[in-house]
Design a protein that fits this description.
Radius of gyration: 20 Å
Number of helices: 13
CATH architecture of the largest domain: 2-Layer Sandwich
Strand order of the largest sheet: 3-2-1-4-5-6-17
Distance between the termini: 50 Å
CATH topology of the largest domain: Dihydrodipicolinate Reductase, domain 2
CATH superfamily of the largest domain: Dihydrodipicolinate Reductase, domain 2
């Protein structure tokens, strides 16, 4: 039985581990013993308590792995990815790391490693879908609107974070790169706010975030953008915090102690943004791909609306992110995807058979991407 090591036992890592543990020998490593105990108690999963911020600890944990899955917060992602590649291990990673993963492309090719990065829902499935159509047609326009939201709109933020608040704050502070007329344009996060009607939710607000990431290098498409979706009014509260310095990373002195405002903010927001046990939430996404197919104007629209799994008690964001990652892990382990180097999901999507397997794997788990084809 092939061996998988999952680095991180948080919401996403746990779901990935549980999804894979009946087909493979799965080990989960994390610094939190409570998370590990819960996994080991209820599933055929081996656990290791380890400080994964330490590269030596990562090397020890993955020593016998056939595949590594990275499910750590973004700020830990790059060093973890580098360590795994240096160890000669294939990896599928969901970390929202701020660095450019292609900095490790030469190393991955030298080590003959397949490193699938950004393999969640967005980035992730949106890249995969675009990669597929980029092989079928001349794409001229790509737009992805995506968000994860609670059903209950209580509190001033009308928001709950299904993953690390520090990674959510990155979406609100990291400048957003979009492609306009063949040129990369950088805009402030939270810019270009638009009201958009998303079925079956209703009116939401969209704003620029830095979600294109690898697509800016891998796709020769003149117009591309990704925007995040939130309930109306949320953005104004976030702007007040940002403009007041609550997201600043430079330490300030508080009674003789150096403190980063962003660390305090994340700690405070974690309580108000934390999903309650079994709280209902959903993931919504709309992708528009427009261009010419065999010389004729064509548009494809993909829509996703996925809710908390009441039976399995799994959040929608963990489902849509985690099951995308586990589906890609199977492709690598079973030899369906073997490309070496840094491989964002658009590389998987470019292989039509891999694309179909990914869509089928998600459909099996009741995550349905609804396609609409429009001849313009």
């Amino acid at each position: 039985m092939k061996k998988i090591v999952v680095l991180g036992a948080g919401m996403m890592g746990s779901v990935i581990a549980v999804d894979l543990c009946h087909e493979y020998h799965v080990t989960v490593a994390d610094v939190d013993p409570d998370q590990l105990d819960s996994l080991e108690e209820h599933h055929p999963i081996h656990t290791v308590e380890s400080d994964l911020s330490n590269s030596e600890a990562v090397r020890d944990v993955i020593l016998d792995a056939d595949l590594v899955i990275g499910a750590l917060p973004g700020f830990m992602g790059f060093e973890m990815l580098k360590t795994v590649i240096n160890s000669g291990k294939n990896i599928v990673d969901i970390s929202f790391l701020p660095e450019d993963p292609f900095e490790l492309d030469s190393l991955a090719k030298q080590k003959q490693v397949t490193a699938v990065v950004d393999c969640g829902v967005a980035p992730g499935m949106c890249n995969l879908i675009l990669g597929y159509y980029n092989q079928k047609m001349e794409v001229e326009y790509y737009e992805c609107l995506v968000g994860g939201l609670p059903v209950d709109r209580s509190g001033p933020f009308q928001y709950k974070a299904p993953f690390s608040p520090i990674d959510v704050i990155e979406e609100y502070t990291r400048p957003a790169r979009i492609m306009e007329n063949g040129r990369v344009v950088t805009k402030p996060a939270l810019s270009d706010v638009e009201s958009v009607e998303i079925d079956p939710v209703g009116p939401l607000e969209s704003f620029n975030t830095d979600g294109l990431r690898t697509l800016l290098k891998t796709m020769k498409i003149p117009n591309m953008k990704e925007k995040t979706l939130r309930y109306p009014g949320h953005i104004e509260y976030i702007r007040v915090l940002r403009e007041s310095g609550f997201f600043d990373k430079e330490p300030i002195n508080i009674r003789g102690t150096a403190v980063r405002p962003i660390d305090v903010t994340a700690k405070l927001l974690f309580q108000s943004w934390k999903l309650d046990k079994d709280e209902s939430e959903f993931t919504v996404m709309r992708i528009i791909i427009r261009g010419k197919e065999q010389g004729n104007p064509k548009q494809y629209v993909y829509r996703l609306f996925d809710r908390f799994d009441e039976q399995m008690k799994v959040s929608s964001m963990a489902r849509t992110t985690g099951y995308t990652c586990s589906a890609a892990a199977r492709l690598v382990l079973e030899g369906n995807f073997t490309q070496k180097g840094i491989c964002p999901p658009e590389f998987i999507g470019a292989d039509s058979e891999c694309f179909k397997k990914m869509i089928a794997a998600l459909k099996k788990r009741k995550i349905n991407y609804i396609k609409e084809e429009i001849t313009l």
